[in-house]
Automatic annotation (TrEMBL):
Coiled-coil residue spans: none
Lineage, top ranks: Bacteria, Pseudomonadati, Pseudomonadota, Gammaproteobacteria, Chromatiales
SUPFAM superfamilies documented for this protein: Triosephosphate isomerase (TIM)
Location(s) in or outside the cell: Cytoplasm
Catalytic reaction annotation: D-glyceraldehyde 3-phosphate = dihydroxyacetone phosphate
PANTHER family, A to Z: TRIOSEPHOSPHATE ISOMERASE
Name of the featured protein: Triosephosphate isomerase
GO biological process, one term: glycolytic process
Alphabetically ordered keywords of this record: Cytoplasm, Gluconeogenesis, Glycolysis, Isomerase
Signal peptide: none
Annotated EC: 5.3.1.1
Length: 249
């Protein structure tokens, strides 16, 4: 049985004061009774604050990216072992905004995934298609290419140690959400593709991301292959984030 995971991607938002307020509200609002694992992904400069505030709560803290290299002259990058040194055990790789705005290729995303695995950081691999690709009937081809690129760098056992987040690009920050049936179809395809590469695919948690809200979460989580959510804007509102987590049972 895969335990649900709900992760909040705070993107480039916040100050030390708002991070403290948000973490405190989520921590106090969740209490000890929850049916899902909870992860927050603050901007890198606030990871130490979030780790300190999450201590003893069971809330995990992750990074929004991780370097593809282990160390060296890579200005602006953050190595996986630096994250673990801060008490940060998860990292997003391949978010569509990184692919779109910063030109991250499938190959670079795969190298970031592999670097995270080498240092004991759990990568959350983001995959998903644009609206044009969906309307052209290319969704599965896009997902396959993104997963296959990672499989060229790591073996099936390493794939099993990651998490996958299906984020249709056309639903991120747009207010549009894939229907539960659309999301389930993509999740089932992803699980099957992982199995092709030797992953214990039934063990891999696959999250849905794309304008997830409390009112849409329950139907999404009811689908057989949806194991939680990667939440964007709603994770910046403590009540909304808590309500989404409550539906992941």
């Amino acid at each position: 049985m895969r335990r649900p995971l709900v992760a909040g991607n705070w993107k480039m938002h916040g100050t030390r004061a708002t991070v403290r307020a948000l973490m405190t509200a989520v921590r106090d609002g969740l209490g000890d009774n929850r049916g899902a694992d909870v992860l927050v992904l603050p901007p890198a400069v606030y990871i130490p604050d979030a780790v300190r505030l999450a201590e003893g709560t069971g809330i995990g803290v992750g990074a929004q990216n991780v370097a593809d290299q282990d160390q060296g002259a890579y200005t602006g990058e953050i190595a996986a072992d630096m994250l673990t040194d801060l008490g940060c055990a998860h990292a997003l790789v391949g978010h569509s905004e990184r692919r779109l705005h910063y030109g991250e290729s499938d190959a670079l995303v795969a190298a970031r995934f592999a670097a995270a695995i080498r240092h004991g950081v759990t990568p959350l691999l983001c995959v998903g298609e644009t609206l044009e690709q969906r309307e052209s009937g290319d969704t599965e081809a896009v997902l396959a290419a993104q997963i296959d690129a990672v499989a060229e760098h790591v073996d099936g056992e390493a794939l099993t140690r990651g998490v996958v987040a299906y984020e249709p690009v056309w639903a991120i920050g747009t207010g549009r959400t894939a229907t539960p049936e659309q999301a389930q179809s993509a999740h089932a395809f992803i699980r099957a593709r992982l199995a092709v590469h030797g992953a214990a695919a039934t063990q891999v948690r696959i999250l849905y991301g794309g304008s997830v809200k409390p009112e849409t979460a329950a139907e999404l989580f009811a689908m057989a292959d949806i194991d939680g959510a990667l939440v964007g804007g709603a994770s910046l509102k403590a009540d909304d984030f808590i309500n989404i987590i409550a539906r992941a049972v």
